[in-house]
Design goal:
The protein is mainly beta. The chain has a single domain, classed as TonB-dependent receptor, beta-barrel domain (Maltoporin, Chain A, Beta Barrel). Helices cover 5% and strands 57% of the residues. It has a 22-stranded antiparallel barrel. A 5-stranded mixed sheet has the order 3-9-10-7-8. Strands 4-5-6 form a 3-stranded antiparallel sheet.
């Protein structure tokens, strides 16, 4: 553990241990500070949960934001076990694997990760228990023992920082509590799938102790065989390229020094032994070139390939954090200190044939990250003025190595190349922020109108030391380039909002917010440095609870103007990040939960979006020719999505039987800005079915599920690879979502 983290943890603990006797009282219920478990509010709907989207506790229906909050119980009931599932339940959200299957791409309101290498940042902020996770490789593919997930749509630049122009996804885990208990389940399914999950809550001191200490331990092990069959006859071929071999272990210690002071220490580790995506190279030109050779024929079946080059994947992430929540009376103090480290190693067969045409020899990435956030917030919910101020510090060091080999087997002149790059990138960022809400209903005016003002100042610096080595053995020819640069950027972002509580069950809001995505560097690319992306978003919406709590209906309209949009380009000249001049996203989002009866529940989510480039002149993604992409659609963004789910709970003397069905419809979408037919996923439909039995005492449960019942072949992402193959046309390296799968899960609470 690094020295900085040890000092922070020990200082937190030492101070509180010293202050504990003076602060301690008879132990009352825990303070619900930011980051604690979601609490169900009173009401028939059961949908009003407490969230911390604005860094304080609020009923989700009172928050003037486009936010979807799903509690842990609902995650289980809807079989949302990972981001793939979450993307079919939340408006305007899409989750996919990267071009090689190991990275993760989160798209929200048309804004998507473009540079998943060490020098890039995601436009959608991802955090776990308030800790910002910079690397897309750090996204945990398994949801378990989660208090809730909050998806905030639109720029969150005031409270969540520079890289939240599309929104923020916040995962809040369950904290330890004073009850001894636990839960465990096991799932078995096709493709030899096996998942074992468990958590245990352990009070370590008696309720009468001056300082209460409690622990929680959570673990997950998950594996399944490959969804894809590899037909290659070569002994070197990898047969389980898209299998899963995953584990996660998380431990938490909660120290309660008084009703007003808590310290949470958390440590977690996870490892993924194989990327969770199917890779397929689909030939866009025949494997015949000038009569030089006739190779094997590509199999159009996305679940079959003939990859001969060994494909390996090994990924690990560790997270250590200390969270202090201290109610000082008129203000509440929150401090979050965290350290993360990760490693990633991957090889890949870029051509997906038994022929050695092109392959990724290695792609390595090692990272370490330190963050410190401190917040002070007003602690009087009855006051007209509520405010929050804070500071944030971020330091990340990433080392990357990459080697790509093209043998030239199918190139016009039989000329191949070896492309190697790597380097070190250190990012240092700090920010100061403030937000205030002024509620006129709590003044002499008596008007149920709240004014929100927020501002954040961010300073970023990236220290880059990298190289590129381009080698053509047949000539021979070598091009070696290196650079040492220190680009920096500063940005002021803010928010102005109005919300009107027309009735206790009806909220209307409008806002203007700005966001900022840091500039970056594509490792081994020259010049390689690209500018920040900025957005201005206009939004209006309402939140309503109707029919005595039996209907929850929320909707929002938004328009986002984007300048200097970061766009990934890979053509026959190489890879780079462009700054497109202008783009926009205009959309409508709606969510509804309907309790038809006490036992019959229906939920729906809709998004309609127009997402286009307004000004973007560049080289064509595929052929490297000049092109004007104005009017083309943004990547990873369908024009519409709609999800519909329903469940009915049958109460019997033998327990409760709850069948559930979920249907998700998506329009077509593109993966590259050229909007080529080669890089397109057609409109598709996904159907998930399940049934759960719970015993009358709610100790035992058994569930069965059928995922992707229609066995749809849906592309998760696409990247252009092997640039010299077939007269320079290249091939597309696709990753796919899982096919139809089924399983049975048995769980027990103790």
């Amino acid at each position: 553990m690094p020295h900085a983290l040890r000092v922070a943890l020990l200082s937190h603990a030492a101070f509180l241990v010293a202050a504990g006797p003076a602060l301690a009282q008879d132990p009352p219920p825990a303070v619900e500070a930011a980051g604690t478990e979601a609490a169900e509010a009173e009401g028939a709907s059961g949908e009003s949960i407490v969230v911390t989207a604005q860094r304080r506790k609020e009923n989700v229906q009172k928050v003037p934001l486009a936010i979807t909050a799903i509690g842990g119980d609902r995650l289980d009931e809807q079989a949302i076990v990972g981001f793939d599932d979450l993307g079919t339940r939340v408006p305007s959200l899409r989750f996919g694997a990267g071009v090689t299957g190991g990275e993760h791409v989160i798209t929200l309101r048309g804004l998507s990760s473009q540079n998943t290498t060490s020098g890039g940042d995601s436009p959608v902020a991802y955090s776990v228990d308030g800790v910002y996770m910079a690397r897309s490789t750090a996204v945990d593919p398994e949801f378990f023992d989660i208090a809730r997930i909050e998806v905030l749509r639109g720029p969150q630049g005031t409270l969540y920082g520079r890289n939240s122009v599309g929104g923020s996804v916040n995962v809040i885990t369950n904290r330890p509590d004073g009850e001894l208990g636990g839960y465990a389940d096991v799932m078995a399914g096709d493709y030899d799938a096996l998942t074992v999950r468990a958590w245990a809550n352990l009070p370590l001191t008696s309720p009468e102790s001056v300082v209460q200490v409690m622990a929680r331990v959570t673990g997950v092990f998950a594996e399944h065989d490959a969804y894809q069959k590899n037909d290659s006859p070569l002994a070197s071929a990898t047969r389980d390229g898209d299998a899963q071999d995953f584990y996660m272990l998380r431990g938490q210690l909660l120290f309660r020094f008084s009703p007003d002071v808590e310290l949470l220490l958390s440590a977690s580790t996870n490892s993924n032994g194989a990327p969770g995506a199917t890779k397929l190279a689909w030939g866009t030109a025949p494997l015949v070139n000038q009569g030089r050779f006739i190779g094997e024929v590509y199999n159009p079946d996305p679940r079959r390939t003939s990859s001969g080059w060994p494909e390996t994947f090994d990924q690990r992430n560790d997270l250590y954090s200390a969270t202090l929540d201290w109610d000082l009376g008129s203000v509440a103090l929150t401090s979050i200190t965290a350290y993360t480290e990760g490693s990633w190693f991957q090889t890949n067969d870029a051509d997906s044939t038994s022929l050695d045409i092109a392959h990724l020899n290695y792609w390595t990435m090692d990272s370490e990250q330190f963050t410190q956030e401190i917040r002070l917030a007003s602690d009087d919910d009855d006051a007209a003025l509520r405010w929050i101020v804070g500071g944030f510090y971020f330091n990340e060091k990433v080392n990357q190595g990459f080697e790509y080999v093209d043998t030239g087997l199918n190139a016009p002149f039989g000329t191949g190349f070896v492309f190697t790059n790597g380097g070190d990138i250190e990012t240092t960022s700090w920010a100061a922020f403030a937000q205030a809400d002024y509620d006129l209903s709590k003044t002499s005016a008596g008007v149920p109108l709240t004014i929100t003002l927020g501002v954040r100042y961010t300073s970023d610096e990236k220290r880059v030391d990298d190289f590129l080595n381009y080698f053509i053995p047949d000539f021979p020819f070598t091009l070696f380039l290196s650079k040492q640069v220190e680009p920096s950027w500063n940005k002021l972002t803010g928010k102005v909002g109005l919300s009107y509580q027309a009735s206790p069950d009806f909220l209307v809001y409008a806002s203007v917010a700005t966001g900022y995505l840091a500039g970056g560097e594509l490792v081994g690319n020259f010049p390689g440095i690209y500018d920040p992306e900025t957005v201005t978003s206009y939004e209006a919406g309402f939140k309503s609870t109707l029919g005595g709590g039996s209907i929850v209906l929320n909707a929002s309209l938004f328009h986002t103007a984007i300048e200097d949009m970061q766009v990934f380009v890979q053509d026959i000249t190489g890879s780079r990040i462009d700054n497109a001049g202008k783009a926009h996203v205009t959309g409508l989002e709606a969510e509804a939960v309907i309790f038809v009866t006490d036992s019959f529940r229906v939920n729906a989510a809709l998004s309609l979006m127009e997402a286009e480039y307004d000004e973007y002149v560049t080289n064509d993604n595929r052929f490297g020719t000049p092109a004007d992409f104005a009017g083309n659609r943004l990547v990873q963004t369908p024009e519409y999505t709609f999800s519909l789910g329903a469940e009915y709970a049958f109460e019997t003397a033998y327990g409760t039987f709850t069948p559930r069905a979920d249907v998700f419809w998506s329009g077509d979408l593109y993966f590259l800005s050229a909007n080529s037919a080669f890089d397109r996923q057609e409109a598709y439909t996904l159907i998930d079915l399940g049934i759960t039995w719970t015993d009358p005492e709610e100790r035992w449960n058994v569930s069965a599920f059928l995922r992707n019942a229609g066995d749809e072949d849906v592309i998760s992402n696409d990247g252009l690879q092997a640039n010299t193959i077939g007269l320079g046309f290249g091939i597309d390296n696709f990753t796919y979502y899982p096919p139809r799968t089924w399983g049975i899960r048995l769980g027990a609470r103790f």
